[in-house]
Amino acid sequence: MSASFACHRCDYPLQPAEGYEGQFVRCPKCGSYTSLPGAAQADGYACAEPFKSCPNCEQELPAQAILCTRCLFNFKTGRRVNVRRALKPFFRHWGGNVPLRLAIAGVLLLLCAPALLWVDRVGVVIALCAWPVLLLLAAGAFCTASLRRDRQGRCDLITRQWVCFVPLPARTCLLDRRCMSIESSLEGGGAAAWVEALLANSIRLRLFFAPVLVLIYLYAMVAVGKYAVMLADDRGSRVERTVIYRCRRESTMREIVDAFCDVARLSCS
Predict the structure, then answer these.
(1) Is 51 part of a structural domain of the chain?
(2) Which of the given ranges, 119-123, 126-130, 133-137, 144-148, has the highest pLDDT on average?
(3) Quick check: 255 and 227 in contact, CB under 8 A?
(4) What is the DSSP string of 155-182?
(5) DSSP letter, residue 79
(6) Could you report the per-residue pLDDT of 8-51, keeping only the tens digit for each?
(7) pLDDT of residue 242
(8) What mean pLDDT do residues 128-143 have?
(9) pLDDT of residue 193
(10) Largest Cα–Cα distance in the chain?
(11) How far apart are CA 253 and CA 247, in angstroms?
(12) Can you give the pLDDT at residue 208?
């Protein structure tokens, strides 16, 4: 029976079988090669030690290893092997509710029809001329967003700003999950809260101006949007926030946030 000895790396006791004197054995605990007493270096081994360390993950491997089994580092090329599998392409678009915005603008435009009875007044004429322009600027100013992922896993955010229902050039942003996150916020204040306070506290306004205030309230809630989804980009010294999309339903906001978290792997804060 051959004598037992310890592994030169982890001191694990080894007991080689008969007939293996003068050879190299592999430690079952740490995986390194240990020479038995009286062993000579194998021909063509080209290394004084029977193992080497991976420069990327520091795993110790046999001296003749070409590819690291842990991080797939190639010792010949000096780079990691890219084995990222092809992903299913993904595309999702969130529009700005253009038909609904046009309908709201048309209804609000009809409200100025009673003012045609006083067209002889200069102030009424100026108001009738300015009203369509204000509607186009208010209802026609919004943002649309698209999330796209190719087979290589590259995720792009495409945003387009609309002014007076005229689309401006699209802006493409490459999403980076290391410094970007998604934020959702509730924007229920502003004009919507002001109209709610008027309808709740003033009986006279509720009697005479309720239809107009209700339409303005619907425009503030539907066309402008109650919920907002923002992209937070950490620039180190500051965090730049960009509104991706505004919507009136919480389910739409959750859908957008879930899509960015699942597809682009962004965190939600």
Answers:
(1) no
(2) 144-148
(3) no
(4) EEEEEEEEETTEEPPPEEEE--TTTEEE
(5) E
(6) 667 777 776 666 555 666 777 666 666 665 554 444 444 445 67
(7) 87
(8) 81
(9) 54
(10) 121
(11) 7
(12) 55
How many domains does the chain divide into?
1
Residue 79's beta-bridge partner residues?
74
Q: Does some domain include residue 97?
A: yes
The bridge status of strand 180-186 relative to strand 267-268 is parallel
Tell me the residue type at 216: I
Q: 152: exposed, middle or buried (C-beta count within 10 Å: 0-12, 13-18, 19+)?
A: exposed
How far apart (Å, rounded) are the C-alpha atoms in residues 219 and 104? Answer: 7
Q: Tell me, what amino acid is at 47?
A: C
User: 44 lies in a domain?
Assistant: no
Which H or E run includes 235? none
| Cβ(235)–Cβ(177) below 8 Å | no
Is the pLDDT at 94 greater than 90? The verdict is yes
Of 51, 48, 31, nearest to 40 (Cα)?
Answer: 48
Q: Is 165's pLDDT higher than 70?
A: yes
The domain of 135 spans: 90-187+225-268
Q: Which amino acid is at 227?
A: Y
Give the residue carrying structure tokens 């339409």. Answer: 215
Q: Nearest to residue 266, comparing CAs of 184, 182, 183, 185?
A: 182
Beta strands in 58-215 (DSSP E): 60-62, 73-74, 79-80, 90-94, 142-149, 155-163, 166-167, 171-174, 180-186
**For 40-91, how does the pLDDT look when each residue is reduced to its tens digit (9 = 90+)?**
444 444 444 567 788 888 787 777 788 887 778 888 888 777 656 677 899 9
Domain assignment of residue 140, yes or no: yes
CA distance 97 to 94: 9
